[in-house]
Design goal:
The model has no long low-confidence stretch (mean pLDDT 86). The protein is an all-alpha fold and 295 residues long. The protein contains nine helices and no strands.
Length: 295
């Protein structure tokens, strides 16, 4: 997630559309220059046509951007729920089970929940598991196609076993199980966003329409001030391309990009919160990153 508005953030954005910008600059400059000295100045496109085309593109872009932001914001809200439910789970385990914990139930739940958060974030980004996650999985001999789901199952199995051994009140057991179920729901929502591809045809249509508008725009402007005409023929399409690229970047919040949901940072926050809950000791807050984003 972007946290600083500096030149690096601008360069990150421009590197996605610089080829389009160069093509538009070349086209607008060449067509306008040729138009001044050749018969092309006789070819005119009514301004009403370019206005209608621009309006259509603007409406499509508005809908496209709104849908992309909705996906991004939904993902951010889901991870906010994960933060809250993770803290709730460990708080319940600590409060509901006896203070004397010979079977290390509380540390086991805490460690497993921390690993679950990291494993979920790395699974969503299609990254290899980190050394921390993989070491835990190897030590517990946990193997599955869906590791985060397997870890939640381990939560449930451990809860059932501990409840039977310690005679936990059924109401308290149900409350903990409900928290685990909400974590499972949050994971499913993330997977739905990850696996639902935004229609490529819709994006292609908007991109083509922007280029159509850029192609006819120089012919719809009056040939009075060439430099002004060139500037307008460049600025309008570039703005539309920038809006389109913003929507494209935001539509997939789990792709390991600077604009992603900061799942790693949130997992670290969860880890610090959980350690404070089980140890009753203050943990160090991670330093602010020097980068323009957090992942």
């Amino acid at each position: 997630m972007l946290v600083k508005n500096n030149h690096k953030a601008i360069f990150f954005f421009l590197k996605h559309i610089w080829i389009d910008i160069v093509l538009i600059i070349i086209y607008a400059s060449v067509i306008t220059t040729i138009d001044l000295y050749t018969y092309l100045h006789m070819i005119t496109v009514p301004l009403s046509i370019t206005t209608v085309a621009g309006t259509i593109v603007a409406l499509l872009l508005a809908f496209r951007t709104a849908q992309s932001y909705d996906r991004w914001w939904e993902a951010r809200k889901i991870w906010g729920e994960i933060v809250n439910e993770s803290r709730t789970l460990i708080r319940q385990v600590k409060q509901f089970f006896p203070n004397q914990d010979p079977d290390n139930i509380i540390p086991e739940f805490a460690q497993r929940q921390i690993i679950w958060c990291y494993a979920l974030s790395q699974s969503l980004r299609k990254e290899p598991f980190s050394f921390k996650v993989q070491s835990y999985l190897d030590s517990k001999n946990i193997k599955a196609n869906n590791i985060p789901s397997k870890l939640l199952n381990k939560h449930s199995e451990h809860l059932k076993q501990a409840s039977e051994n310690l005679g936990l009140d059924p109401i308290k057991q149900t409350q903990i199980d409900s928290t685990i179920s909400r974590l499972n729901d949050a994971m499913g929502k993330c997977e739905r966003i990850k696996n639902t591809v935004f229609p490529r045809s819709y994006s292609s249509l908007i991109h083509v329409l922007i280029y159509v508008l850029a192609s006819i725009l120089p012919f719809g402007l009056e040939d009075v001030f060439p430099f002004t005409e060139i500037a307008i023929a460049i600025i309008i399409p570039v703005i539309l391309l920038a809006v389109e690229e913003t929507a494209i970047i935001m539509q997939n919040p789990f792709e390991n990009m600077p604009t992603d949901i900061p799942m790693t940072a949130l997992s670290k926050t969860i880890e610090n919160n959980i350690m404070e809950i089980i140890t009753d000791q203050k943990t160090e807050i991670p330093a602010n990153p020097n980068s323009f984003y957090i992942n």
